[in-house]
Amino acid sequence: MHATYQAAADIDVITSTASIPGLGMVPINAFVLHGPQPVLVDTGAVIDRDEFMTALRSVIDPAALCWIWLSHTDFDHIGALHELLAVNTELRVITTFLSVGIMGLSDPLPMERVHLLNPGQVIKLGNRTLVALKPPVFDNAATMGFVDDTTGVLFSSDCFGALLSAVPESASEIPDDELRQGQVRWATIDSPWVHKVDEASFAKDLRAISDLEPTMILSSHLPAAPGDMTSRMLAALEATSTAEPFVGPDQAALEQMLAQMTSATPR
Ligand SMILES: [Fe+2]
Ligand SMILES: [Fe+2]
């Protein structure tokens, strides 16, 4: 089930919720930036791309889109990518060299429709200037987020995601403790390398986000977060390097879950 909501006057969120057994719920977000050159940030999950397209059409005609910002190539970000390129032949994809390479192993992107960018570089799209950046945590080496210089909104890709008990439309509705724990849990699962980082170097990356003073943080896996939440969301990330590492269910746990499901199934 997809839903849409407005995060700002010119930004729509297209969201679905994934339920992860035993861990909680996580939103899967894509974003439409309206304006003279509309941008779609990511394209939903592969498994429900038809529902994603329906939700997208409720906020913009796909033929009106000018750009897709592909933050990385994971299955929860590339769902409707090729369908959109097919229905809108003018649409171009802003992404990294590495994303293009990874897509080339399954469903290659047409190179003449790619605009390559690196973190630190800038692209001007109509009235918007997007400044590409590498978020402090990520699960795919190709990851690239950005700041919209015009509005100060940070698009952080998977960074700042959280496992939650419910998914509201604003992160400000999540109790502080739940958000912190959910963020720490997500980061230890999604970016397990965080336990190996040099803490001073990681703190520097977190400070760089703080220095941006984002007016809002839009994560692929968290409801829209107003800018006044930035410092506590960064504090949660800072806590991840020393948090308990995630260990997934093993075969014994799987068999237990399957047995529970079988006994709960009506005959
Ligand atoms: Fe990812
Ligand atoms: Fe993701």
Give me the secondary-structure topology.
Elements: E1 2-8, E2 11-20, E3 24-33, E4 39-41, H1 49-57, E5 67-69, H2 81-87, E6 92-95, H3 97-103, E7 114-116, E8 122-125, E9 128-133, E10 145-148, E11 153-155, H4 176-190, H5 199-212, E12 216-218, E13 225-226, H6 230-240, H7 251-264
Parallel strand pairs: 4-5, 5-6, 6-7, 11-12
Antiparallel strand pairs: 1-2, 2-3, 3-4, 8-9, 9-10, 10-11, 12-13
Bound molecules: fe (ii) ion (2 copies).
Explain what this protein looks like in three dimensions.
With 267 residues, the protein is an alpha/beta fold. The protein has one domain (2-249): 4-Layer Sandwich (Metallo-beta-lactamase, Chain A), CATH 3.60.15. The protein has seven helices and 13 strands. It has helices spanning 49-57, 81-87, 97-103, 176-190, 199-212, 230-240, 251-264, and strands at 2-8, 11-20, 24-33, 39-41, 67-69, 92-95, 114-116, 122-125, 128-133, 145-148, 153-155, 216-218, 225-226. Strands 1-2-3-4-5-6-7 form a seven-stranded mixed β-sheet. Strands 8-9-10-11-12-13 form a six-stranded mixed β-sheet, with no helix packed on it. It is globular. One fe (ii) ion (FE2) is lined by residues 72, 74, 139-140, 158.
